[in-house]
Amino acid sequence: MKRIFSGIQPSGTLTLGNYLGAMTHFVDLQEDHESFFCIVDQHAITVPQDRLALRKNILSLAALYIAVGLDPKKATLFIQSEVPAHAQLGWMMQCVSYIGELERMTQFKDKSDGQEGVSSALLTYPPLMAADILLYNTDIVPVGEDQKQHLELTRNLAERFNHKYNDIFTIPEVRIPKQGARIMSLTDPLKKMSKSNPNPKSYISMLDEPAVIKKKIKSAVTDSDPEIRYDEKEKPGISNLLTIYSLCSRKTIEELTKDYQGIGYGQFKEDTADAVIARLKPIQDRYHELIDSEELHSILDEGKDHAHHTAQKMLKKAEKAMGLGRKR
Ligand code: TYM
């Protein structure tokens, strides 16, 4: 069985972008892959985090993983900082990374742009991400479009390591969905929807109340030409809503454009909001059952043990390949 690995940062409440671009695919893939899904808290601290909010967000993400349909019997769910092999291999991957290639990462450029006191970890974020993936002999990494460049770097680092030291790492493939790989902001449909955007109107949180979802979608930026059709260049706002509506209702974009011929944006937005609400409702219900439960902790304890056991084997191989420690 092929292995998959993916991670999400607990840096705020997850958005509809995280759900449609990544999580729904995790749920499908767990059926016929050996799966590891990580809460990457060490990646989250590359930018300042409030201590209590971070702790809360870690558990909240764990509950969401399960609420969307990840089954702890099929998939291993765990917290990155609880498996020390990630930081250990992360350091080793930094030693095979070049500063120049890290500085070229668009995420680094975006997150450091105009900031004072940028942490060195923001630059060395991708070698840690490579370590996450390589520790598990991962074949496939399901992610949204914005992670493509990090995945290319992961492959390069793995090949470089294999060539320089010993051929120990599986070269992972990236899996980006055909639809929904880049859900856009509701206030600026040329930018991706992001949980770190300071304007909450720009994104739909997975835990937003129905009335809030309605309001946000109603005020989503569109255009003045009344036709509902998919055209990313001319009609980015409507195209984004069509993608969201299609993925939430499981109707194709062609079906929707036919259904909405001659119907105005008002009705279309109303129905898009209803489709999003209907899709998120069962997830939210399950989330609220789980969030304060002991069950969540036992799932994370088991996940930690299994991930630790698996990762340790690769860590030892990598240490041996680089000559760290002693031979016993
Ligand atoms: P993060 O936490 O920013 O996002 C988690 C996942 O959601 C996807 N995503 C989106 N997809 C579609 N439209 C959007 N607007 C949107 N926003 C986010 C992301 O592509 C991602 O799949 N570096 C990673 C976390 C990470 C990781 C890993 C991922 C750390 N180690 C190892 C895979 C494998 C990140 O910041 O994702």
TrEMBL record:
Please name the SUPFAM superfamilies in this protein's record. Answer: Nucleotidylyl transferase
Using the UniProt record, name the top-level EC class of this enzyme in a single word: ligase
State which Enzyme Commission number(s) the record gives. 6.1.1.2
User: Per the UniProt entry, what are the Gene Ontology biological process annotations, in alphabetical order?
Assistant: tryptophanyl-tRNA aminoacylation
Catalyses which reaction(s): tRNA(Trp) + L-tryptophan + ATP = L-tryptophyl-tRNA(Trp) + AMP + diphosphate + H(+)
Gene Ontology cellular-component annotations = cytosol
Question: Which intervals of this chain are the motif 'KMSKS' region?
Answer: 192-196
Q: Does the keyword Cytoplasm apply?
A: yes
List ligand-binding residues for L-tryptophan: D132
Q: What InterPro entries would the database entry show?
A: aa-tRNA-synth_I_CS, aa-tRNA-synth_Ic, Rossmann-like_a/b/a_fold, Trp-tRNA-ligase, Trp-tRNA-ligase_bac-type, Trp-tRNA_synthetase
Residues that, per the record, bind ATP? Q9, P10, S11, G17, N18, G144, E145, D146, I183, K192, M193, S194, K195, S196
Q: Which family does it belong to?
A: Belongs to the class-I aminoacyl-tRNA synthetase family.
Assembly notes: Homodimer.
Quote the protein name from its UniProt record.
Tryptophan--tRNA ligase
Taxonomy of origin reads:
Bacteria, Bacillati, Bacillota, Bacilli, Bacillales
